[in-house]
Amino acid sequence: MSTFKQEPHKLLVIPGPIEVTDEVLYANAHPSMSHVSADFIPVFGDCIRMLRELLFTQDAQPFIIAGSGTLGWDQVAANLVEPGENALVLNSGYFGDSFSDCLRTYGAKVDEIVAPFGDAVALSDLEAALKQKKYKVVTFTHVDTSTGVLSDAKGIAAAVKKVSPDTLVVADCVCSVASEEIRFDEWGLDIVLTASQKGLGTPPGLSVLVASQKAVKVFETRATPVTSYYGSWKKWLPIMKAYESGSAAYFATPPVNLIYAFNASLRQITKQSPSVEERFRLHRETSARIKKAAEELGLKQLPVKPSVAANGMTACYFPEGLTAADLIPSLVKKDVVVAAGLHKDYKLKYFRIGHMGISAIDSSRGDVDKVIAALKESLAEAKAGKNA
Ligand SMILES: *Cc1c(COP(=O)(O)O)cnc(C)c1O
Predict the structure, then answer these.
(1) Is 171 a pocket residue for ligand 1 (Cβ < 6 Å)?
(2) Is 352 annotated as belonging to a binding site?
(3) 330 CB less than 6 Å from ligand 1?
(4) Is the CB of residue 141 below 6 angstroms from any atom belonging to ligand 1?
(5) Cα–Cα distances in Å, from 11 out to 299, 336, 353, 377?
């Protein structure tokens, strides 16, 4: 381990990017390497293997591609859904709108079930829709980062398997991988897509997607050509297989340094303490602490009930009479960076705190204490200012 320490900085507690460890940042500063060198090949290969471990899957196929989380939607739309085929989007916020938009861009016929604000789509509504029409894919947002709403991934997958077993279950887990429990094989998921900068604790720049063998087969047997060049699994599947088997292949240059950083983070997540399961528990505990503190400060949460509230972030309404301008800059002055609202209809009414990765699992850093203390002070100052 190096003695590298990152510069003092404001605490970043937005729902991604998140705080990253010194080890991960140092790995990003690796000397330049050839992407086909013998030294780099196992670094990439281990990322693929550790991803399987993290998602509890034996044989699903990871894709690690330069891009952001958004590229995962493009991969699904371009490789799995053929133009004119039906897709059902379970929409629990901003990111559901975007996934629909992406699917339509590639020619899918999209139906949406839109959840009430602050809630997840009811499984009974999903089952009813599946009985009406045959869908190639059902997509849902595991944690909708715009609302902090957690969807029941296991229940959704079970409902699809029961009513429409051929339909692929696609989970946008950009804001849930490594902070929420995900059991890929056991739950019967077909796609988990995410990005490097949220729970995975790496700088932004990687699209990370894991596809079931069933999904890979659906891709391989499609009737029409893939509708993307850069995002085509025809191009990327041989590359992923090559790196995993210990040889290199080239389609487009991988972000070599970022792969070193990703490897360092996956190593911390899957090979070091806490274990992956402990990590989930620590995220639940940190989340409960922040949510309780928010409640004590009189802040109402967006999710309508605890069972649909994410464990890696918290979304709260501003108290009556206060706005983003009263609170967010004041928190920044205390070196705490939170996020404003994002949902199109309500974005001025609430704010969001991210508590993923080291901020959630390493209490010795004191990140959670700092957030709660700053929130308390800023709220008191803002209220005093209004009363003056
Ligand atoms: C952040 C996020 C995305 C988009 O990821 P980018 O890396 O910004 O492209 C998609 N879905 C969810 C749920 C997210 O939280």
Answers:
(1) no
(2) yes
(3) no
(4) yes
(5) 21, 5, 11, 16
Tokens encoding 196? 């490097």
Under 8 Å between Cβ of 19 and 359: yes
The one-letter amino acid code at 245 reads S
- Quickly tell me which residue has 């991960």 as its tokens: 24
Spacing, Cα 146 to ligand 1 middle (Å) = 10
195 lines ligand 1 (CB under 6 A): yes
pLDDT digits (tens, 9 = 90+) for 135-190: 999 999 999 999 999 999 999 999 999 999 999 999 999 999 999 999 999 999 99
Q: What are the structural domains of the chain?
A: 22-271 (3.40.640.10), 276-387 (3.90.1150.10)
CA distance linking residue 302 with residue 119, whole number of Å: 9
Joined tokens for residue 205: 């720049």
Tokens standing for residue 325:
């301008």
Write out pLDDT tens, residues 10-65: 999 999 999 999 999 999 999 999 999 999 999 999 999 999 999 999 999 999 99
C-alpha 174 to ligand 1 mean position (Å): 5
Q: Is the dihedral of CA 294, 297, 301, 306 positive or negative?
A: positive
